[in-house]
Amino acid sequence: MTPAPFILCAFWCTTASPTLGGALVPPAHGVLRVGGGFSALFPTVSLEAGGGVTRRLDLTAHYDTHAGLAHVYGLTARVGLPRSLAVSIDVSHSNFALEEISGIQAVRAPIGNGLTSTFSFHGSRVTAGGVHFYGGGGLTLRWLVPRERPEGTVERVFDLTVNHLYAELGAEWERKSGALYLRFRAIVPIQTELNVLGYLPWVVIGRTWNVP
């Protein structure tokens, strides 16, 4: 298939079905998801592509960038459970484009900059009007943490610790091709203190295309 027909098919040959929360992507089907919003005070862009492997398993690769300063690459495996529930594990790696931001070393950032694993629980509910509401939460383990040497330099060393907890709420509205979605996530750092809100907000609105 040439690129042009493939692109047209992505927009016109799609079906509308929920794919977030506890709603898995059906086997032999794919999903493309594009969103934008903000993470803390930084604009963010989120790109996702995945597909159903079995009735109880789907895989999604994702890329996120925060104002071009931080980049996150990851892969999520989600396993379906009865009653529109699911659990997932995500393995991601993030890095900063700058070594220092406003005099603060990027390696000291409370979120990101290294290898992480996130374990999550999801639940979904579809209303009579066809709106898909979902929620969930989880915890993220960080594999590398910063350590300061006696000479004042900072290096990352292996130390498997709980980096942050998060809770998420969202909704999907079905359309003739794909769906619109709104996602809100509250990220609570564990390895550092935040004295303003106590959490970092993450809000993204976007569109999903389900490719048969």
What report would you give on this structure?
- It is a single chain.
- The chain has 212 residues and is mainly β.
- The protein has a single domain (3-211), classed as Beta Barrel (Porin), CATH 2.40.160.20.
- The chain has 1 helix and 12 strands.
- It has one helix at 3-12; strands spanning 30-39, 42-54, 57-66, 70-81, 85-96, 100-101, 104-105, 114-126, 131-148, 154-174, 179-189, 200-211.
- It has a 10-stranded antiparallel barrel. Strands 6-7 form a two-stranded antiparallel ribbon.
- A hairpin with a 2-residue loop joins strand 1 and strand 2 (42-54).
- Residues 1-15 have low confidence and may be disordered.
Summary tags:
Porin; two-stranded antiparallel sheet; 1 helix; 212 residues; mainly beta; ten-stranded antiparallel β-barrel
Can you give me a brief rundown of this structure?
The chain is 5% helix and 64% strand. It has 212 residues and is mainly beta. It has one domain: Porin (Beta Barrel).
> What form results from the Cα inertia axes?
elongated
Number of separate structural domains:
1
Mean pLDDT: 84
Radius of gyration: 18 Å
Q: Tell me the major beta sheet.
A: 10 strands, antiparallel, barrel
Please state roughly what percent of the residues sit in beta strands, choosing from under 5%, 5-15%, 15-25%, 25-35%, 35-45% or over 45%.
over 45%
Identify the quaternary structure here.
single chain
Which sequence of SSEs, written as H and E, runs from N to C?
A: HEEEEEEEEEEEE
Q: Output the strand order for the largest sheet.
A: 1-2-3-4-5-8-9-10-11-12
The CATH class designation is Mainly Beta
CATH topology annotation: Porin
Structural class: mainly beta
Q: Would you count the extended β strands for me?
A: 12
Helix segment tally: 1
Query: Helical proportion?
Result: under 10%
CATH architecture: Beta Barrel
